[in-house]
Amino acid sequence: MPAYITGLGCCLPNAPVGNDEIESVLGVVGGRPSRLKDVVLMRNGIQSRHYAIDRHTGEQTHTNAELTVAAIRQAMAADPNTAPVQLLSCGTSSPDQWIPNHAAMVQGLLRWPPCEIVSTAGVCCSGMTALKYAYLSILNGATTRAVVTGSELASTALRASHFQSQIEARVDENPFLAFEHEFLRWMLSDGAGAMLLADQPRSGGPSLRIDWLDILSFAGELETCMYSGAVKQTDGSLRGWRAETQLTELLEQGYLNLSQDTRLLEKNIVPVAFRRSLLEIRERRAMHADQVDWLLPHLSSEVFRRPIAEMLAACDFAIPDERWFTNLSRKGNTGAASIFIMLEELLTSGRLERGQRIMCVVPESARFTFAYLHLTVV
Q1: CA angle 347-351-354, nearest 5°?
Q2: Are 105 and 96 a contacting pair, CB within 8 Å?
Q3: Terminus of the chain with fewer CB atoms < 10 Å: N or C?
Q4: Is the predicted pLDDT of residue 219 greater than 90, yes or no?
Q5: Could you check whether the bond before residue 95 is cis, i.e. omega within 30 degrees of 0?
Q6: Chain centroid to CA 253
Q7: For 44-87, what is each residue's pLDDT tens digit?
Q8: Phi, psi of 92 (to 5 degrees)
Q9: Do 339 and 298 form a contact (C-beta atoms < 8 A)?
């Protein structure tokens, strides 16, 4: 029994924030404008993004669950079928709380009757693992109608006040944030995306048939690259927040930051993990580049575009630029939501034709996981 995406929706909170406005919204850390911001923004190619923060008061305007619900309602409005949803599968790396899980909070806001729910963790691939759960549920006949989401609320952990304790703890030795803590302030933003899945295509409009979805993790071979709730040790291991006996250490040592080891990122994300995963998936699925009408790569930064193109060509899988689709520069890096937001824009753009094939690639640098999704327009 095939599975189809019959509706797509997204929610990007508040007005777009341009590059010259970021610190006026997130705040200035330590009373000093960032020395790193312009360098990171020049490389990542993002021109605007969205934050769930009031630019005048600095207060949070949406929860992650509220963003997710808005995206779900848009996705469901795209499909005239009003049959009840049997499964809600949600992926995020930034839930509003640890317990209850994110899907439970989303269902609560929707006020849906009893249904199966699941929440998947991780970073960018958490939306894809949520999709795989729902996809397999439809394939095996357990579910005929499901909603899948990917969402992120990064901005609340990027505000200057979040880093104040770190600055105060070492103001005499270094009044600036460490690179691995500041880097992601200029890379991440907020948003949610949703898919409505069914065992039949929708009537009166195009649907996307899910042909396959494969996920590969390299955690058994590569050390941690992105992390939160921990600090990285000199030997590459992580010291988790539960190991600390003093709560003040959690803030002062950056346990609650989302941090990135950029040295590992550039060394491994494209030449190792992307290349090896592509070669394995290509062989497993007998794929050829001429079978891909649209390539949707989740890019965290435009700096990776050329290395990816060169790697694809070296693997005999070159895809011309005109068959790539991204919206990073306009909608930012929304992590687990990014691929949902890209698909929603492409589907509503009028550029898709029946029979076209779409390959989505979602890399996750946390410990190097890749998800590959193949769709056909029907």
Answers
A1: 80
A2: yes
A3: N
A4: yes
A5: no
A6: 26
A7: 999 999 999 999 999 999 999 999 999 999 999 998 888 999 99
A8: -165, 155
A9: yes
